[in-house]
Fold this protein.
Amino acid sequence: MSLIPDVPRLFIDSSFIEGDVVVLDKDQSHYLIKVLRLKPLDQVLIFNGRDGEWLSQLEPGETRKMAVLRPLRQTRPQAPANDLHYLFAPIKHARLDYMVQKATEMGVSHLRPVHTQYSQSARVNLERMRANAVEAAEQCGLLSVPTIIEDVSLPQALAALEPDRLLIFCDEAAEMFNPVKALEQHKPSSKLAILIGPEGGFSHQERTMIKERSLTLRLSLGPRILRADTAAIAALAVVQAVLGDWR
Ligand code: SAM
């Protein structure tokens, strides 16, 4: 994967057809014209999660300050997306933003906040999560933006997982064992989910409920208790390296 240096990338939720134009919304027009100060014929890389990545150019003569892009040529075809769900107990604002950005960079396909007994935040701003995911996807060259799934309780989240999806339950109380070896005991699978708990950890009752699910691997991430956002990155790195798209 290579990005074209100095050419901004933008996620646009509409189809790209050679020779046709894409009219941007107010916020994206403002970003290109006022923030980046692009001029007519300047280039922008665009992706929509369906048509791969395209090189486009800013058309001259935008109307009512709405930027118009003309797709010129496809620079990368759409690659099949990962199937890696990231389930996490919501944490507070700035660290939630960070977690969503990092999980996106690490290649998750779905993000789902899960309310647990010791969750810190009762309400989650899904729009804000999506904005963070879009920004991270634009910056790190992804061809699609992870899907943000509405927040639910832990029992509902467990019930919604397909039976053949391996759930990697990150638990600081798990007996310490090399996580690489633990993951290697599972076939590289196309369907994975990682679960990270809240700052207060899981309750005894929740641990029991999670462990009762059949295709579940209880994973230790080493001898230290990591903050939830650190645990997210550690878990995603080891899972991507052993079972995911770093192989
Ligand atoms: N229960 C802990 C406490 O209050 O002492 C803290 C929980 S930790 C801050 C937040 C989450 O990160 C945990 O629920 C777990 O999913 C994950 N986590 C942190 N350290 C971990 C480790 N060493 N192994 C596996 N998971 C870990």
Summary: DSSP finds seven helices and twelve strands in the chain. Residues 228-242 form the longest helix (15 residues). Residues 3 and 141 are 7 Å apart (CA to CA). The pocket of S-adenosylmethionine is lined by residues 170-172, 196-197, 199-202, 220-222, 224-228, 231 (CB under 6 Å).
